[in-house]
Amino acid sequence: MNEATRVTESQDRHDHSARSAHHDSSSFWALTLGSVGVVYGDIGTSPLYAFREALRSAVGDGPITQTAVLGVLSLILWALTLVVTVKYVLLLLRADNHGEGGTLSLTALASRALGRRTMPVVTLGIIGAAMFYGDSVITPAISVLSAVEGLTIVTPAFEHAVLPLTVGILVVLFAVQSRGTARVAAFFGPVMVVWFVALAGLGLLHIADDPHIFWAANPLYGISFVVEHPLIGLVTLGLVFLAVTGGEALYADLGHFGCKPIRTAWFGLVFPALVINYFGQGAMVLANPGALENPFYRMVPEPFLLPMVILATAATVIASQAVITGAYSITRQAIQLGLIPRLAIRHTSEIHSGQIYIPRVNTALLVGVLLLVGMFKTSSALASAYGIAVTTTMVVDALLAFVVIWKLWGWKPWSAAALIVPFVLIDGTFFIANLLKLFEGAWVPLLFAGVIVLLIMTWRRGSRLLAAKTRHLEIPLETLVQTLTKKPPHIVPGTAVFLTGDPDSAPTALLHNLKHNKVLHQHNVVLTIESADTPRVTEEDRVRITRLSPLFSKVVLRFGFMETPNVPKALAIARKQGWHFDIMSTSFFLSRRLLKPAAQSGMPKWQDNLFIRLAKSASDATDFFQIPTGRVVEVGTQVTV
Fold first, then answer.
1. How far apart are CA 103 and CA 124, in angstroms?
2. 443-473 vs 359-376: helix axis angle to the nearest 10?
3. Taking the model in full, what pTM does it have?
4. Could you tell me if residue 134 is inside a domain?
5. Which residue of 168, 394, 448, 476 pairs with 427 in a disulfide if CB–CB is 3.0 to 4.6 A?
6. At what angle do helices 119-148 and 103-114 cross, to 10 degrees?
7. What sequence ranges are listed for the domain K+ potassium transporter integral membrane (predicted)?
């Protein structure tokens, strides 16, 4: 090889490396921008109401004092630092389940660390997931309300328009969900960047109003305020927590953006902008106590007030969008983990599998949000209901993280406890503080989450009882295969696929086919669909085939809890393992169970009836598993539970 050739090849390698580095760099910054839009929408809109409500609680009907302002600001600053920065950004983002985060991902990770799904771990996961739904109802209501209320600062004449306008925005927001969020999401990042820059700008505009405000960086101001005013301090802590709501979204959206982009966005833009804005609000209130009426909008120069209301409304819609899509994602995970019945899932993007729409969840959230707006009417009243759901989720995350750090990361139990216990104490204190608002509105998310927990527990318990009863009635698959191999009925060409939840028992549809049609297909597949404790399953691990006899095969399809099962597509992968799958010569046999309450059931009668209603509401298996309807044969059976 001559020198010129070597130089050319070296240059080509350098150019390729440079292009690759440029692509990685542009992709990283695109993800960072996206994380600003989706991950930080909720916590980014907290300055609209968090400082106002916390300080109102701290001073009550008395005068605004420097001690109260510095105490509240100190608590907000250190809550953001310890709860969000240290616990979530620096610690929990490391606890990823194959790149995915969130309470259910952490539950799966903890279960894997223990080697099995234990009841305490699963229960914690269920509570955390249920509380996320409570948050998904409150966030759109309080966020949009607080933004639209800025119109009353523009002119008091708009006061009567706040509620109708809020309801109109929310209805439109939920109505467009079925169209997908891909197009709208492209604007999320830039709009939220403008929002955070505006937050920092407003803060800088007023931070010099009273330089004493910088003393709030000393945590002793926050601690002494709580110690000197125990009851008021605890109530104030519950409202200070409004400043960190949305912090758990950092972890939940890990799979969408990755650890580094989320951290870069937090330290490079979001955290500084929030702190500067809160300090600006505090300095302005110290200089002008009357501004406590609405300190956020009072910071805005009059010519920019209306544009700021519009920007704030856009930011709150984005914050709402983030929790709505989060509710869809957690619902899909819950379905895959067997926690709730199958629900119809629509994909709104041909490129991104994570962009889904679940009609029933969307309707339930809209009804819940509109009820809250109608019940509480103002963001100040709604603030009492906010926080309890998020604090519970944060406590759950901390407890599950202890299991992961101890068992999966290999730490000594006391070392893991020394790391996690302080966070449990902090989250627990915030939980107790929010619990003090129980009768003022905190009962709403607790009631909502309680209903979700009841439904999940009923579904799990009923499913176990049904499986046990069905297993008792069914014939072992191996016994049936041996009998049919020795004495086969009439054989017809083609492939028959029998779906079953128990791969060791003969499917009911197979027995009914033999009983009524008295024929057997040339190829018979007993198909079981399993949910893995990982977000996604590779193609190599998707299909497992076991040959039972010349006539029978057992196939297991595995899907991750972040995936929507597609049976025909998965079976096509089996061709690589030697199975000649042709959808046009394949019939899928499904059992459609008609459930009736039994005289003697393992559950109370009310729970028995509830389980039957849940089972009836489940989405059709044909649609859920994306099986062509023209290839499906359904066999009806009646079972008592």
1. 9
2. 150
3. 0.82
4. yes
5. 394
6. 170
7. 32-482
Q: What is the pLDDT of residue 11?
A: 44
- The pLDDT tens digits for 571-593 are 888 777 767 767 778 899 988 87
Q: Do 442 and 546 fall within a single domain?
A: no
Tell me what pLDDT residue 183 has.
Answer: 57
Q: Among 426, 460, 494, which residue terminates a domain? A: 460
Does 18 reside within a domain?
Answer: no
Cα–Cα distance measured from residue 500 to residue 526, given in angstroms and rounded to the nearest whole number = 7
pLDDT of 24 above 70 = no
Average per-residue pLDDT for the chain: 86
Asked if 36 and 89 sit in the same domain, the reply is: yes
For residues 356 and 329, the answer to whether their CB atoms sit within 8 Å is yes
For 438-488, the pLDDT digits (tens) are 888 889 888 988 999 999 999 999 988 888 877 776 788 899 999 988 888
Residue 143, H or E segment:
helix 119-148
What count of Cα atoms within 13 Å lies in the side-chain half-sphere of residue 12?
Answer: 6
Q: Report d(CA 124, CA 120) in Å as an integer.
A: 6
3-class secondary-structure state, position 242: helix
Distance of CA 542 to the CA centre of its chain: 25
Same-domain pairing of 449 and 486? no
The stretch 60-88 carries a mean pLDDT of 94
Domain stop point among 410, 428, 460: 460
Total count of residues recorded for the chain: 641
Share of the chain above pLDDT 70, in %: 93
| CA pair distance 99, 562, nearest whole angstrom | 11
CA pair distance 426, 429, nearest whole angstrom: 5
- The DSSP call for residue 627 is -
In a domain, 23, yes or no: no
Per DSSP, the three-state class of 166 is: helix
Q: What sign does the dihedral 21-25-26-28 (CA atoms) show? A: positive
572/429 same-domain check: no
Range of the domain at 587: 473-640
